[in-house]
Structures are given as C-alpha cells and as structure tokens.
Amino acid sequence: MTATVSGTEVALPSVTSVYRSRSAVELKEFFRQRESVVFTLAFPVILLVVFGAVLDYDIGGGVSFTQYFMAGIVAAGILGSSLQNMAISIATERSDGTLKHLLGTPMPKSAYFVGKVVQVLAVTVLIIAILLAVGRLAYGVPLPSGRDWFTFAWVAVLGSAACTLLGIAVSSLAKNGRSASAMITPIALVLQFISGVFFQFSQVPVWMQTIASFFPLKWMAQGLRSVFLPDVLAAQEPAGTWELGRVALVLGGWCVAGLVLCVLTFRWQDRGSD
Length: 274
Hints:
With 274 residues, this protein is mostly helical. The chain has helices spanning 15-32, 34-54, 65-95, 98-103, 109-139, 148-170, 177-194, 206-212, 216-228, 244-265, and strands at 2-5, 8-11, 58-60, 63-64. 38% of the residues are buried. Belongs to the ABC-2 integral membrane protein family.
C-alpha cells in the first residue's frame, strides 16, 4: 500500500506492523504511569497478603480461607486489568484529545483497539502469575493441576474478553477523564463485595447473589473456585455444583453483549466537544 506525499509515492507500513507498533506504544504508556501500575498490579497482591495473614482460617474440609480467596482475587485482578483499566484509560485519552488526534491519522481505527487488547492480555498474564506465585510461596495455596489448567485458561480468557469489551463500552459513560475513576472504581468494588471475592459467596445475602449473577465477575470467580477448591465444596454454591457450562454461556454472552455495546456507544470525543 502506498500514499502520495508532495507528489511522491511513499510506501505505508503493513497493517500487521501498525498493530505491533500500536501494541508496543500501549504497553510502554501503561508501565510509565506509576499510579496505574501500582493500582492494577500491586493492589490485588496487597489484598492477598493482608487477607491471607488476617483471615487464614479453615472453612471446612481442610481448606483455608486463603485458598478460597485466591479464586476471588484472581477474578478481581482480571476485572481490574480489563474493565477498570480500559474504562479509565480510554475516558482519559478521549478527554485529553488523544483519541481525536489518532482519528486524524492514517492509522486504522482497529489498531487502537488491538493495542488495548494486547495491553490487557499482557497485564492480565502478569498479575495472574504474581498472584499465583505469592499464594503458593507465602500461603501454600496449591496450584491447579491436570485439566484444571484448561478450565483456568478458558475462564480467564472469556472473563478477560467480556470485561475488556465492557470496559470499552463503559468508558463512554464518563463525562470526561477526571470523572472516570470516581465513577468506575466504586462500581468495581461493589461487584467484588457481592460476587464472592472478599467473602464466601454462600455468606452473601440471597438478594445480593441475585444481583451479582447478572454480571461476569460472579461467574468468573465461580469458575475459578472450581479450579482452586475440592469438588466437595461445590455443594456450597447456589446450584450445588460449579455450573461450568453456565459459566461459559454467561461469560460468552457478555462477550457478545459487550461487543454490541462497544459498537453502539463508543465515542472518539467527549460529549459536547466539537
């Protein structure tokens, strides 16, 4: 592909190289923002260390609360690196004119989203690795084995995809970049409290369980509990089983819904701007 500049034909980079370059830019920008790195990567680890030290009691069957908490905090880490990260960063870039500037360049629009997805994938893998290492080395939480790794992988991938798409869609709800964090963070915290992240899900009031079941975090945490906990504890779930088929169905449904919402709601400029 070529473009004409001042009467001279100039070869344009391939789409693949543009995707690769944009992905590198997104990764560099993320790791240069100390606040984002600390909140996204360090916060879940701090929670694991604090809860593991304070609430390391037996919940039954020789399973410690820390082992139970591992599934929830991994799910929360995925939520933070995808939905929260996307919603806040995109709203900020829309507000400071970055998106408007990119829209005026020859770069394919898809490259921006590919870069964001690559960033989420890299950060998600990193945070999962850190949490598993801390859980194993500091608290003796057993790692998944055999087929559990496959379950872990598809739950994490589907959950991350659903939350990433939702984050892109939700970014349009914020009036500007300054209000994005104040709007998104409380919502994420409430979802964590009612989805079985900080408590055993069976201890959450039924009406809160019902609300949580409409959102992907609850299903992501439930799918991950099937990986970290013995099957006997499935009896404590609302349906008495891990419901992995329903977990896949709900998370897949949220991927489709999130994609539709992205197409319908995404904006390259703040509301009311020229």
